[in-house]
């Protein structure tokens, strides 16, 4: 099986319950010092109806992302919160994060989108800023148990 490169991005699929164990494993790899999400947390996200997508290589999850829509789907001026984006380290730097973020934004048309990101996660901050997110403020000791700080960022709805 060939590995995706920047030129041949994998297709995204809705997250299915049988893939959640793979997400929990990736969380352990990606966020070992900051309370990685558990399978139960991902099941709760799906049960709540939040939008989650995965990128696959065969049956292997190599990336995932989720967003929560706040308020009714057709509510003008609604909000959305990026819950998570994670990329298997083997596949980072190939545009998969950008692809997943675009999928999340497409699931929240016309909504103000908020997120938190570690202040030391320069690649993620650069990605978010490149698509129009701006920093709103600093959340000290947001990530636990590491105590790392986070930027709260916003992508505002464009005026018509």
TrEMBL record:
Keywords of the record: Transferase
According to the lineage, what is the superkingdom? Answer: Bacteria
One Pfam family from the UniProt entry? Acetyltransf_1
UniProt-recorded Gene Ontology molecular function terms = protein-N-terminal-alanine acetyltransferase activity
- According to the entry, every stretch annotated as the N-acetyltransferase domain falls at 10-158
Q: Which InterPro entries match?
A: AcTrfase_RimI/Ard1 (IPR006464), Acyl_CoA_acyltransferase (IPR016181), GNAT_dom (IPR000182), MshD_Acetyltransferase (IPR050276)
Answer whether the UniProt record assigns the keyword Transferase to this protein.
yes
Keyword Transferase in record: yes
Listed name of the protein: Ribosomal-protein-alanine N-acetyltransferase
Q: Which organism is it from?
A: Nakamurella alba
């Amino acid at each position: 099986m060939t590995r995706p490169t920047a030129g041949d991005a994998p297709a995204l699929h809705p997250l299915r319950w049988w893939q959640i164990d793979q997400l929990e494993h990736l969380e352990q790899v990606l966020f070992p010092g900051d309370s990685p999400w558990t399978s139960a947390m991902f099941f709760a996200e799906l049960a709540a109806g939040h939008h989650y997508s995965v990128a696959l290589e065969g049956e292997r999850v190599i990336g995932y992302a989720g967003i929560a829509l706040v308020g009714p789907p057709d509510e003008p001026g609604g909000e959305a919160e990026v819950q998570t984006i994670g990329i298997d380290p083997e596949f980072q730097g190939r545009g998969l994060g950008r692809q997943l973020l675009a999928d999340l934004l497409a699931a929240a048309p016309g909504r103000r989108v908020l997120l938190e990101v570690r202040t030391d996660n320069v690649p993620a901050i650069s990605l978010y800023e490149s698509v129009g997110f701006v920093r709103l403020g600093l959340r000290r000791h947001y990530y636990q148990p590491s105590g790392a700080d986070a930027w709260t960022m916003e992508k505002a709805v464009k005026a018509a």
